[in-house]
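Quick start: read one record
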Amino acid sequence: MNSRKLLVGGLLILGVFGANVYAAEPIKELNLYSARHYQTDEALYTDFTKKTGIKINRIEADDNGILERLKSEGDKSQADVILLVDAARLWRAQMHNMFAPTKSKYLDERIPLNLRANTEVSGTPWYGFSTRARVIVYNKSTVKKTDVDTYEKLADPNNKGKVCTRSGAHPYMLSLVGALIERDGLAGTETWAKGMVANMARSPRGGDTDQIKAVASGECGVALTNSYYFARMMQSDKPDDMTAISRVGFVWPNQGAGGVHINISGGGMARNAPHPKEAIQFLEYLASDSAQEYLANSNNEWPAVQSVKVDNSALKALGTFQSEKVSVSAIGKNQIAAQKLLDQVGYK
């Protein structure tokens, strides 16, 4: 077999093509548009091809790149499956009519209701296949854990000058605020957001790893991060990462008070999928025990399928937790209200 890699407009297109182009039987294939940028997913795709004989052609970019490409391609798009990270982005794609509702008894049985789009008569637009938690890290030398063990406490006056986060326009932030709107109402969330702005140690910037390092250095007292970033640093053998982890504490927020905010990585069949049968087969594969275990163990996420057990030392070290029960579909739907609210209070 011959492999091919092609860079087009900043998007990486990857595929494996059979040498015998004149074979009597057409080669089964799948066109995957993926915003999952994790190298560890290579083994996942290889396993699917090995089990099914279906060749995967991939286009990879960040979420915005994938969504913009799908917009520009319109009805001519050759995408079969779209994978995106975060409920806010999945909802955006759904609102732009990029998904074809899928009917699959297997997926409906495996993926919990709160981890997928609302089911329509024609089917379900998208499903979550892995989960991650929005957790709190704090500087152990300057901050007490009991002062930052809920999202709401981050907005308390006693945390003034201590809080660091990503930009208020980032989907991770929009999804958290969308969940808080669902849990605490619009007025309550606005009060919280005003408190967060008043407590900022610096203007919101950087990624989740940057937030952890800023807390470790003392630039911030407390910050928000996705759980898999923290787990990744726990597993690192880099001296800087090891030092940072030794200086910060970790909190499962809101235990006994609504649970920690949960988000997803997920996807669905593209609206004009040229290979719908293969698309559903791939989506069902992602909900299989083997794929679910791989997603958890390779990228420090949790399975969406509740019966699947995790064998990941970093995740085990983080301990057990109570998660929120808010639907990720509702979280996505609330992102417009979340952005408007953050803009109003000056959350940059």
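The first strand starts at residue 2 and ends at 8.
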